[in-house]
Structure formats: structure tokens, C-alpha cells
Amino acid sequence: MPNLRTLLILAVLLVLLIAVPPFLGLGWQNALVNVLIASLFALAFNLLIGQAGLLSFGHAAYFGVGAFAALHLMLAVEDGLPFPTPLLPLAGAAAGLLVGLVAGYFATMRSGVYFALVTLAIAELFHSLAPRLEGLFGGESGVSSMRMPWQGFTFGSMIEVYYLTLAWVVICGLGLWAYTRTPFGRLTLALRDNEQRVRFLGYNAHASKVIIFAVSAMFTGVAGALQAISNETANYSLFGSIVSSQVVLQTFVGGATVFFGPVIGATAFALFSFLVSDLTRSWLLYQGLIFVLIMLYAPSGIGGVVHHHIRNRRQLDWARLAGPYLMALAGGLLITGGVVFLVESASVLFGEEYARLRHAAEGGLPAFDLFGAEWSPVSVLTWIIPAALLLGGIAVLIRARREIDTLWARKDPSDDTLAETAPLGGEA
Amino acid sequence: MEFAIISTLNGVTYGLLLFMVSAGLTLIFGMMGVLNFAHASFYMLGAYVAYAVSSIFGFWTGLLVAPIVVGLVGMAVERFLLPRVHAHGHAHELLLTFGLALIIEELIKLFFGDFPVNYQMPGELRFSAFHIFGTDYPFYRLFIGGIAVVMFSALWLLLTRTRTGIVVRAAERLPAMAEALGHNIPLVFMFVFGTGAALAGLAGAVAGAFYPTNPNMGLELGVIVFVVVVVGGLGSLKGSLVASLMIGLFSSFAVGLDWSLANLLGLFGLGDWARSVGGLLTLELSSVSATIPFALMLIILLVRPAGLMGERN
Amino acid sequence: MKRLALLAATSALTLGASALHAEPLKIGIIESLSGAQTSTGRLYANAVSYAVARINEDGGFNGEPVEVIEYDNAGGAPDAATKFRQAVADGVDVIFQGASSAIAGQLTEDVRKHNLRNPGKEVMFINLGGEAMELTGDKCQFYHFRFTTTAPMRVNALVSAMKEAGDLGTKVYSINQNYSWGQDMQAAVETAAAGGDFEIVDEVLHDVNKIQDFAPFVARLKSAAPDTVFTGNWSNDLLLLMKASGDAGLDVTFATAYLDQPGNIANAGETALGHYIANNYDNAATDGEFAEAYKGSTGHYPTFVEGHTVFAVGALQQALGTLDFGGGDIDVTKIALALEDTTYETPVGPISVRKEDHQTIRPVVVSKVVKNAEYPADDTDMGFETVEVVSGETAIYPVQDSCKMVRPGE
């Protein structure tokens, strides 16, 4: 059972999520709705990979199905069906569950890489057939509807949508968490770690996996429905591989081995896209770099790292660790600065506008503007800055890491309960 | 008859191109068990490197340099990146290559822009090989096909007839034993990964001059290549060849066939009913030809996951 | 980085003396600035920025410079919906978007719902490139304006110009992408058959941007032996189709809608010679004054969608010129009403808004690819030569019955 402290933190978080948004601007409310939906999607996705060790590369299918189901119900409500608007996500849940049962039955016949490929193929089938099936998915412009008022709520303003989303995400999040605590949820973990043994114990491994898959698809469907409610439209692009891969990225950056890890990843990515996507053309590159770096240096994700620290908090000499950690942070910032400088100058230097400037300068290399200053591409100084940032950052990081390692090594080894991250996906 | 012959020709040459790209992927998977999501990005990288080099040193130099550069990139990935995540299982390897694919695509956009670049085949290859039923058949299609055939034969001979091939296959089956016999297994794996990447690079360099070279080319071909490799059997070179040809021929013939399920049901007198139902039943084969490969892949995965020619699951 | 500077500038402004300043008109560009359609999205965004800079040179609007904010919809409708809400949060009055009909469909619905719920705080949407017929049909609404052609306009213009030039022939083949735009094109070709005295020998709809090898389609095309091939294909689908037919040595003329997309001519090479295009604007059809002015400011001649995008903003500027909010609140409904009454003179002819469905009545330029063109495309020696500028009255088609527009105050 979770300790009091965790509960307290969650309660404070919930109070903040309830109390703060009315005072935020429309932009932030909108961003928070996206954060919540992405979080639920990632949590539901992680039921498969984090709990059952099944890597799905096609979860967009269930997200999209949930969205379209909710929209069709919304259309029916528009036509007079007396269905309460706040319960619309139930349609997404039902559709997700249903499609999840069928797809899951087939997909879980395979494991490892093959499972990933089956899920990928299923999502691609949806993606390529949806625009052809106009009755269900409304062609490429999709299905569109409007939230209808219910019991005095108009659901016209963003804040109403926000609270509706928050309520559903909290309920579903708790549901998912509770699920992992049930004996069946425990069985899921066992399936991941040693399927053969589970079979020997007399459980039907395939049936169990189908159920997990369907449950994951059901909650994914709720997330899709919530997006449909917030956007009031959906089109076939919801089935696209980008949707499937985003949730994979978010979950692993956040950490698949910790229950709330995916929420961290989803929050980070949704906010990242909210804050950065209009600032630079290269934001997808940064996103990719972050993902690969996390895969390389913190395979258990942000959540995993945090969890590791919390577990060992009593054994660590925090006073002495603070220095090296700050140093590591500084090193990270230096490297980030260097990379951003290089990427942004490359994007200027190889861009169309600069090509025109060069053309005007008759093949010369004129200076370019970046971060409010002017830089000459042939000046050594221009390139010394990012080089110094990068090298300095790397040097600082290496140093900090060495110190951190020594300090960690010094901690009381008796209580290092966290096992190394279990392999995910298993052998093919 | 005319349609059949032309479609067969087109299907075979397109199939051979698919094979060229998928050969590297299946080689890497067969030897190392790594499903390389970045493979199609290597293909794209090959096209762009060839474009950049050929604009200064000419087409043939580009064709030579591209596989070398991409092969080196592949080796670097295998040597420095994959080992870091190896301990966390195949899923993490797959995710890493997936992240790399994102980065490569964005880097290409950063340096070469979003529009297709002007990468063309040289004038001496731009002629028609023969004249058939009133149309010219471009020589370059045969050139692509020819390179694919040479590639297949070379790989086949290398793996089955040479000492190196024996070591590589030993390293795949029993790495520990092969290592005990004094072979440098990490080196072998690096070599295999590099070769696989180089093959993709070569394919990109060859095909990029025929099809447009743009930042989406990896994405567009990527999924189809997965289909080929799965259908043929993950890790089976022969299977890849057969599956490539199958999919090539299929997409070639599907274009001319206005078949739908409704027509099929019409044979049993259910045509009108099917047409009244609409939806899936009235979709014409030619309009969903891009969907069929996925359906095929799904069926193969479920019925015979080892693929047509794969040896094991 | 532009938006960062702009945000900083605006927040400094508002902090400084918010009460003293009038409300600036805010324009939001919700475009595909990342993802597969980035190239086109970028062109729309650049052209809007260029044209707004002209407004600001002329003193802006409502006593303030007009602000432009760019939003990246990542090429997808769901992201566009999010960015629309962000734009509303930023106080945007007019939204511009061009790349993709699906996104235009999403935005026009978003705008409609927003205006229903927020009377007095309306937002209007200027559609620069969403050519799906339903946008001025089923989905037509008062706050949506389409400042581009549609399939029937392009096809009508092509048929009339090609016929006059003697390049149309009597056998026509239609090959299009299987989604609303391609289907609209196919339907438009079918409709035009009677007036153009041609017979449609075969028609094909194929998957959008998924086909790598067009040789099989060319084989089918060849067996139908057409004189002219009508296609609304864009991007790879057009390029691959033309290359494959060129490689097969087919002697057909292509009648296209998007041949001028940058990179197409260079990539297609000599194959492109003699093919037709109908579009909103081409430099060669004008006296060159606008083209030079654009080049003077941006360093290159307007290409692809840039020209007509500038005219859309120009029409808006002209409409704004008839209004005076006295430095107070901006009433978007009044702007929309003024835009309805605007007839804007472009270098290729006048553009006016048809009040019934907010489709613009506009000239269509029909051009042909030639060697040694006046304005070479993609650094080649080839380019477009104007065959005919078909007037708006000739090219326009009847209002669709499905359009039931609710006007403000009704």
C-alpha cells in the first residue's frame, strides 16, 4: 500500500489541479487538457509495456476508435438522444474495450518484436481504411459534432472541458492504479517476468494477456473520447503512426517501470510541444534527441531515476550530493546551450532565407541573426562558443558523474532494493 | 496480355528495389535479432549523401561513397549506441533505433530542407532499354533490378561460400562458442550491422535518382519494407526476395483490377446486396492497394509468424 | 525564434502602457510547419508575413501594427484544433491556413463553434488552400472565406484554355488521389466533358502519397491511349506519375493543378515540358511589378502559393481600409462584412467574394511548361508560360445546394 506521504503529495497535486486552472489563461487551460489526455493515454499504454511487457506500436488504433465512438454518440445527442454529456467517454471505453478484445486476441498470440509488428499492422489497417469508410470515419475531413449542454453546464468554455477531463483522468488513473494492486494485476507482472512459470501455475496466459490488452485499449479509448470531446472533431489522422509513436516516446521518457512514470513523460512532452513547438522549426529534432539520450543514459526514464532516488533517500548523503548534482545540471545546461546553438545556426545557414542572402552576396557567407545577435559563419569566434559550451558541458558532466558515482557507492548497500530494470518485451 | 507482360516487368523491377532495401534489414535482424527501425532512414541517408557527393564529384562517385558513409554510420550505431541498451532487452534496442530514425529524418530536413532535392540519374543511363507495346522501357529500372540481383548473389555467396560467412553464421548461432574459437564476435556484429546499413545506403543512392529524394522517402518506404521482411520471414534473405517480388507484382497488378468484394459476391448473386451495404464491400482493389500489404502482413504474423521462408519464430 | 521576440515585444508593450494602446489586429497562421507538408506550410506562412508587413508599412490598423503569430499544426487536424484554441487564447482575430483540406475542415468547424459560443468575440478564417468542395458546401459558414480556386474552377479553366490552344484532344484520362480533393477533381472532369467535347476514356483514384512506383498506373494509362491526362495530384504523387510516364515515353499532355510546387520542375526535368497547369497566379501572366516587389523584399520571386496568399491578405487590407474602430475594440463581424463587399485588383485580375458561399470569384491562370521561360523555375531553364488568364466569371461554378449559410443577426 502507498504510504501516507505519497497520498499526501497526490492530494496536494489534485487540489492544485482543481484550484489553479480558473486563474490561468485560456492557453494554459488548453495545454493542461492536453497534458491530462496525454497522461491517461500513456498510463493506459503503459499497462501493456510496463506491467505486461508487451510493446504496442499501434495504440493509436484504440485512441482513434474511442474518439470516433464518442463523436458518434455526441452526434446522436445533438439529434436529441437524452444522454448526459459528462458520460460520453463511456462510449470511448466501450469501443476501446470491444476493439481491444478482438485485436488483443490476435496480437497477444505473439510476443516480443512480433507482437509490436502485429499491433503496428492493425493500426496501419485502420489508418489506411478509415478515409475510405466515410460512413464511420467521415472521409479525410472526419466527423464533427458539438458538446451539448447538460444540467446547467454548457460545456462551451475551456474550463468546463478541463474539469470534465480532469475528473475522468483522475478516476481512470485511480482505476488503473487499483488494477495493478489486484491479484490479477499482480499476475500481469508475473506474465512479464516469467510467462512460463505463470503457465505452470495453471493460469491461461493467453486469456490473461487478452484481458490486459482489452483493459489497456479501454482506457486508451477513454483518452481518445476525451480528446474528441475537447476537439469536437476527429479524423483518420488519429490512427496515424505519429500518434502511436508519441505515446511510446512519452512513456519511455517518463519511465515505464514506475506507475506514474508515463504521466511525467506525457506532461513533459505536452508542455514541451506547447512551449517550444512554435518557437523553433527543429523541435521534433530536440524531442528525438531527448528520447535517445534518455534511452542511452537513463533507460528506466525520468520516473525510474526519481524512483531510484526516493528508494535510497535514507542511505544517501544529500548534503554532499547536492554539489555534484548542481554541477551535473550546469553541465547539462551547457551542453543544451551548445546543441541548441548548433542546431539553430544550422537551420539558419541551410535555410532558404540564407540561401537568398548568399545569392545576393554572390556566393559569400554573410553574417546571420540568431538569438538577437549577429554572427559571422566564417569567424572562428562563432564556432568557439558552441564548441566551448559542448566541451565544457561534457567535462563538467563527466566530473560530476564521477563524484556522484563515488557518493552513491558509499551509501549503505544493505537496502538497495531496487532491482535493475527488468528487460521489456523479452526475446522474440 | 500486354497488360500482364508490362505489369510483370514493372512488378519485378519494383520488387527488386524493395528487396534491395529490405536485404539489409533482414540481414541485421537475422544475425543480431535487432529490428532496426532506422533502416529506412539509412536508405534515405544514402540518397542524400549520394545527392550531396554527386553534385560535386558526379553520379558514380556518389554511388560509391553513399554506401560507405552510411555503412560507417551503421557501424558507429552498433559499436557505440546499441551496446548501451543491449542489457535492457530487444525492446530497448528497437526503441533506440526508432529514436535514431526520428533524429536522422529531422537532421536531413535541417540540412537539405523540406522540398525534394534535385538528385538525377546521369544522362548516360537515361535511355530506353527496349520498346514494348508502343512504350519505352527505361533502362534505369533494369539497372536497379540488376544491382539488386548482383547484391543478392554476392550476399548469398558471401554467407554460404566463404570463410567469413561461416564465421558470421557461427556468431549468429552460438556466439559464445564462436568467440571461444578465437573469433572476434563484436567485430563480426559491427561488420554485419555496417553491411546492412551500407546496403540500405546503396539502395537509397540508386533509387533516389529514379524516385524523388525527399525527407519523407524513408517514412514512405519504411512500412512497406517491414511488411516485406515480415512476410518473407524475419532474417531470411531468400524469403525477403520472394516477398519483395510478391508485393511488387501485387501492387503492379492491383492497379489494373477494379475488383471489389461486391464483385466477388456478385458471382454468388449477392452483388446488389453488397452494393447496398457499401463500406468495405464496395471498395475497389485499385483504391486500397496500399492497404493490402498490411493485411497480408497481419495474416502472416498470425498464421505463420516465421514468415514464408523463416526458419524459426 | 520569431515568435519569442514577438511575444517579448508584445508583453513589454502591454506591461508598459496597456490602457493607452489601441487593440491591435492579430493574425494567426495555423500551418504545417513541421511534418510531411512543412514545405508548403512554410510558403503560406512566409507570404502572409510578407503581406502583413505591407499593411504595417501603410500604418497598420486601428492605430497599431498588425501582429502575426505563427502556430505549428504539425500537419494534423488534432494539433490544429489545439493550436486554434491557443490562438483564441492569444486573442487572434483572423486565422489563415492553407496546406490541407482536412485541417481547413477542422478549423472552419472550430471557428463556427467558437463564434456560436462567444458572440461578440468572433474569429474569422481565411482559407488559402483548402480546396475541398464541402468547405463551401456542407460546411459553409459566414466566417469562412476561401481565397483560392476549387476543382471545377481549375478544370473549367484548363478545358477552355487547352481547347483554344488545340492541346486538349478528344480523349481524356483522369487520375486522382482518393480523397475529397481528388474526388472533386474527378467529378469536375466528368462535368466538364460535355462542354469540352471530350470523352473520358478511363478514371482512377489511388492512395494518397503512399505509392512508390507509378509504372503500373502508367501501363494502365497507356492502354487507354488518351490525349490529355487530368490530375489533381500534388507532391510526390504528381512527380512520380509524370516521371513514370516520361520514362515510358508516352505522348500525353498532363493537365495539372500543382505542377508549380517547388522542386517539381527540376525533378521532373525535360519530361515536364508541354504540360499544363491551372492555378491562382503566375508571374509570367503579369507585368512583373508585383513579382519584383516581392523579390525585392524576400529575395525571390513569388512561387507556388505565395502569390495568391499575398492577394488574400491584400483583400483583407482593402476591407480593413473601409473600417474605423477608432482605436477601440475590433469587431470581426464587421471585418467579415467588409470583406464580402471587397473587390480586390490583383495583377492577374479582380477577386471578389461570392456572398452566398464565400467562395472567391477569381481569375485562373492557365500556363504551360516551356524552355527559356521568363521566370525560370527551380534554377532550371524551364518555367511557365501563360496560355490564358481565364476570367473569374468564366471559371466560376454555381453555388452548391448544400450550402446553408447563417448570416450574423439571422
Automatic annotation (TrEMBL), chain A:
CDD domains: TM_PBP1_LivM_like. It comes from the Bacteria. The lineage of its organism: Bacteria, Pseudomonadati, Pseudomonadota, Alphaproteobacteria, Rhodobacterales. One of its GO terms (molecular function) is branched-chain amino acid transmembrane transporter activity. Its main location: membrane. One of its GO terms (cellular component) is plasma membrane. It comes from Alloyangia mangrovi. The keyword Cell inner membrane does not apply. This is Branched-chain amino acid ABC transporter permease. It is found in: Cell membrane. It is a multi-pass membrane protein. Coiled coil: none annotated. Keywords: Cell membrane, Membrane, Transmembrane, Transmembrane helix. The chain crosses the membrane at residues 7-25, 31-49, 56-75, 87-106, 113-130, 150-179, 258-277, 283-306, 318-343, 380-400.
Automatic annotation (TrEMBL), chain B:
One of its GO terms (molecular function) is transmembrane transporter activity. It comes from the Bacteria. GO terms for cellular component: plasma membrane. It is a multi-pass membrane protein. The chain crosses the membrane at residues 12-35, 47-73, 94-112, 139-159, 187-211, 217-234, 241-261, 281-303. Coiled coil: none annotated. Signal peptide: none annotated. InterPro entries: ABC_transp_permease, BCAA_transport_permease. It is found in: Cell membrane. Its main location: membrane. Keywords: Amino-acid transport, Cell membrane, Membrane, Transmembrane, Transmembrane helix, Transport. Belongs to the binding-protein-dependent transport system permease family. LivHM subfamily. This is Branched-chain amino acid ABC transporter permease. It comes from Alloyangia mangrovi.
Automatic annotation (TrEMBL), chain C:
Pfam families: Peripla_BP_6. Residues 24-372 form the Leucine-binding protein domain. Transmembrane segments: none annotated. It comes from the Bacteria. Residues 1-22 form the signal peptide. InterPro entries: BCAA_transport, Leu-bd. CDD domains: PBP1_SBP-like. Keywords: Amino-acid transport, Signal, Transport. The keyword Ribonucleoprotein does not apply. The keyword rRNA-binding does not apply. PANTHER family: LEUCINE-SPECIFIC-BINDING PROTEIN (PTHR30483). This is Branched-chain amino acid ABC transporter substrate-binding protein.
